[in-house]
């Protein structure tokens, strides 16, 4: 009998498919080098690299510049401040960072790129010039920073994340880079992620659009704009960061706050429903999967990190060229290859360790008017409520104590589900945001708002 692979290993056919996808990306994208990695259920299960120089293939620990993936790190720092009670996402910027000229926009709007700020800083092109040319926030925001009414639409803004980096410094009382090191990189063990490169690292290149010729790109320190795109990292470090974005880590940010970051914060553009944005996190639909993460680019470098939280699979793709190889598409394909070839094997069904009789009594059918719902216990002590016909509203609820639960998702996200009892202690009905759920549809004597016709159900 042949032994099956360990849970961490990929099948040889899957590994070859991943290598083939990477090789095609490097060849057709005409990039000097390409590095990638795949993580499954918290373990890096595959790394690969291609290079135009024979015998000089990047290692998994080779640094590349990751551009706007930096924004997700900055967003985590802001969410930490929120969780500590040092600010609220609804606070106007002016409350914590006065004098910017954009003080009425909220912190949440800046995180979700809905603050209405311009996409770029004033000339010269900030990605190819030293940050010393923009020593103050006024140099980053410029005179025409306001493009749209705050909160009305998604408009990607690099200056907006520069402002968030300055917000972190003002509230935390330390430089953005120091806060990043102490609060994210050290706890997560991201030892090869930094604001400046260290060997081994890739050099940035431009490839001529009409000829197979290369030109080195400058690599500038972005100064104040570092929180929008400064970082260097590796496929290994970014895979670990991807797992954090899926699971959270109490040393950095609890799972509930990471889940909040992955929730869409603004409507997608009209006619473009395949992508949207959370709080420092991009959200896309690709190949039937919902992927969260971020892309990044700076002259000489392109990067992408995507995670399918549902499947427990993440992929990172890094290149050292200004344009061409589309690492976002590559990383998404790497996730899809693993998910399609080796779908997640469900954990064995197991009964609950214990069952509260009072909770068990609440399970089964309930009726909101004539709509039939089913209530079942969840393994985490919460409950799940779903419509039994028509595929309508469905939500999960987390226990809030004393016969109450709080909605986690769907129509009832944030709403309170509570048990209403009669004077003798028996259950009368469930109250869900003022909706009354009873054991029978319009049963006689039930606490249905407006009452129930005394003549009861009848035929024509």
From TrEMBL:
The lineage of its organism: Bacteria, Bacillati, Actinomycetota, Actinomycetes, Kitasatosporales. Residues 28-338 form the Beta-lactamase-related domain. Residues 355-439 form the DUF7586 domain. Signal peptide: none annotated. InterPro entries: AmpC-like, Beta-lactam-related, Beta-lactam/transpept-like, DUF7586. This is Beta-lactamase family protein. PANTHER family: D-ALANYL-D-ALANINE CARBOXYPEPTIDASE, D-ALANYL-D-ALANINE-CARBOXYPEPTIDASE/ENDOPEPTIDASE AMPH.
């Amino acid at each position: 009998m042949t032994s099956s692979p360990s849970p961490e290993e990929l099948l040889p056919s899957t590994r070859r498919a991943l290598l083939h996808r990477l090789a095609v990306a490097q060849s057709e994208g005409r990039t000097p080098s390409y590095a990638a990695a795949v993580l499954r259920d918290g373990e890096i299960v595959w790394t690969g690299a291609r290079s135009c120089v024979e015998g000089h293939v990047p290692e998994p620990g080779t640094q590349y510049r990751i551009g706007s993936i930096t924004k997700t790190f900055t967003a985590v720092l802001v969410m930490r401040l929120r969780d500590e009670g040092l600010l609220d996402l609804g606070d106007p910027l002016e409350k914590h960072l006065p004098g910017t000229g954009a003080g009425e926009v909220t912190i949440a709007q800046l995180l979700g790129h809905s603050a209405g700020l311009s996409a770029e800083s004033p000339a010269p092109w900030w990605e190819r010039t030293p940050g010393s040319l923009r020593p103050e926030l006024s140099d980053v925001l410029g005179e025409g920073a306001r493009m749209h009414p705050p909160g009305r639409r998604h408009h990607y803004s690099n200056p907006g994340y520069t402002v968030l980096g300055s917000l972190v410094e003002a509230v935390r009382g330390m430089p953005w880079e120091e806060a990043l090191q102490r609060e994210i990189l050290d706890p997560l063990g991201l030892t090869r992620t930094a604001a400046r490169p260290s060997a081994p690292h890739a050099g940035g290149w431009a490839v001529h659009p009409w000829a197979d010729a290369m030109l080195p790109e400058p690599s500038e320190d972005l100064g104040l704009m570092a929180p929008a795109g400064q970082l260097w990292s590796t496929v290994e470090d970014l895979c670990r960061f991807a797992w954090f974005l899926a699971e959270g880590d109490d040393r950095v940010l609890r799972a509930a706050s990471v889940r909040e970051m992955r929730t869409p914060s603004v409507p997608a553009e009209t006619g473009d429903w395949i992508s949207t944005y959370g709080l420092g996190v991009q959200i896309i639909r690709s190949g039937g999967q919902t992927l969260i993460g971020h892309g990044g680019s700076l002259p000489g470098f392109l990067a992408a990190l995507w995670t399918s939280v549902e499947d427990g699979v993440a992929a990172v793709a890094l290149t050292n060229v200004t344009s061409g190889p589309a690492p976002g598409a590559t990383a998404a394909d790497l996730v899809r290859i693993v998910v399609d070839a080796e779908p997640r094997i469900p954990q064995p069904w197991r009964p609950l360790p214990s069952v509260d009789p009072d909770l068990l009594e609440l399970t089964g059918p309930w009726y909101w008017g004539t709509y039939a719902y089913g209530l079942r216990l969840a393994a985490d002590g919460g409950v799940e409520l779903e419509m039994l016909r028509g595929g309508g509203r469905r939500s999960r609820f987390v226990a809030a104590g004393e016969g109450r639960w709080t909605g986690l998702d769907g129509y009832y996200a944030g709403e309170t589900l509570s048990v209403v009892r009669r004077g003798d202690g028996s259950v009368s009905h469930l109250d869900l945001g003022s909706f009354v759920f009873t054991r029978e549809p319009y049963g006689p004597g039930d606490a249905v708002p407006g009452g129930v016709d005394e003549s009861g159900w009848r035929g024509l």
